[in-house]
Amino acid sequence: MKKLIFRILGGIVILIVALFVFVSFTWDKKFDAPMPDLKASKDSAIIARGKYLAFGPAHCATCHVSMDKIAEVDGGAIIPLSGGWELDIPPGTFRAPNLTPDMETGIGKFSDGQIARALRHAVKHDGSMLFPFMPFQEMSDDDVIALISFLRSQPAVKHEMKKTELKFLGKALMAFGVMKPDKPKTTPPKFMVPDTTAAYGSYLANTVANCVGCHTDRDLKTGKFIGKPLAGGFQMPADAFSEGYSFITPNLTPDIETGRIAKWDREQFINRFHSGRVYKTSPMPWGFFSRINDTELKALYAYLTSVQPVEKKIDKSVFLPGEKLPPAN
Ligand code: HEC
Ligand code: HEC
């Protein structure tokens, strides 16, 4: 009997050691996604579009500035994207890098193709995977060019960021191929002309501004989408930045009873965006979105009021410190 127990224990120890050895030798994978043939431009209108995206609908600056500057940038300050946001979660500690043209600590040495590949194929300049913080894979060629052109137009800021560090869970997800770089689901358009149509609104909501990423219910552990698109219900428990507040995203579909904006006319929708942040720690980048121009806000309204209504009652979307969230899903 004793012998058997020792054998079983011995077997378990060997398995655990084998798992650690396997993970530590195989997690550091390189991926070879194509580098899009897109070139940065010096044209001032193209640079202006990139800046508008980065400090408006695409909200790059919510993560690529130091954490003590985020509120200022949300409030309208324009500062170089010298990196800084850090998120410590079970798979690892993720750090948003310096995106100014500094040669040593920024993107100075990266080619346009490398930066375009990061956005479109979630592969970093060194071929490693970018964890899914940036769902911009289907952004148009012209908008990717605008962003790269803007990044290159910034002053070079020397700011050494520590690298992202994966923990055992993150490494295991890589080793077993559970996590792979996000790919475009459809062929990204060459360009999208900003207008007030639902088609352009869909491009904003699904690709540029990622409304769908927060306003769709997701599994809290895996991040997988489990609810109907834009029907809300995604729980955001209190975290290090929320000063004790928790949030549940409202239903944005046009269901007349349960859709948050179903009874709003276009004017009200636009005014709600212009007036910006109500809850200081809401994860929605309200300040950035308050700078979305009226053409694009009209497009968002046209799109959100055109999607399939989904009946999903979200009684409350803001929870004070200490208030309990209802059971998930
Ligand atoms: C939610 C936070 C967040 C937002 C928003 C965001 N980023 Fe990032 N970005 C990150 C993080 C975190 C990393 C590093 C991830 C990693 O190491 O796996 C990163 C990495 C990058 C890289 C990779 C650089 C390299 O090493 O190759 C580029 C380029 C980049 N971001 C550009 C952008 C642009 C352009 C935007 C806006 C269109 C943007 N990011 C919006 C968090 C963000
Ligand atoms: C990072 C997550 C996140 C993103 C991205 C996001 N939202 Fe939200 N949104 C929230 C949360 C959380 C709330 C509830 C708290 C609040 O009102 O700030 C909310 C609330 C709202 C409300 C209700 C506001 C009110 O006063 O009743 C509207 C409308 C809305 N979002 C629309 C959008 C649209 C349109 C987009 C894309 C352009 C978007 N959201 C992107 C998280 C997000």
Can you walk me through this structure?
The chain is mainly alpha-helical and 329 residues long. Helices cover 34% and strands 5% of the residues. The protein has helices at residues 2-26, 44-55, 70-74, 112-121, 141-153, 168-175, 198-208, 211-214, 266-275, 286-289, 294-304; strands at residues 86-89, 92-95, 165-166, 235-236, 246-248, 318-319. The strands form 2 sheets. A 3-stranded antiparallel sheet has the order 1-2-3. It has a 3-stranded antiparallel sheet with strand order 4-5-6, with no helix packed on it. The radius of gyration is 22 Å and the shape is globular. The N and C termini lie far apart (46 Å). Bound molecules: heme C (2 copies). One heme C (HEC) binds next to helix 4. The site of one heme C has 23 residues, from helix 4.
Summarize the model shown.
With 329 residues, the protein is mainly alpha-helical. The chain folds into two domains: 44-175, no CATH class; 198-319, no CATH class. The chain has helices spanning 2-26, 44-55, 70-74, 112-121, 141-153, 168-175, 198-208, 211-214, 266-275, 286-289, 294-304; strands spanning 86-89, 92-95, 165-166, 235-236, 246-248, 318-319.
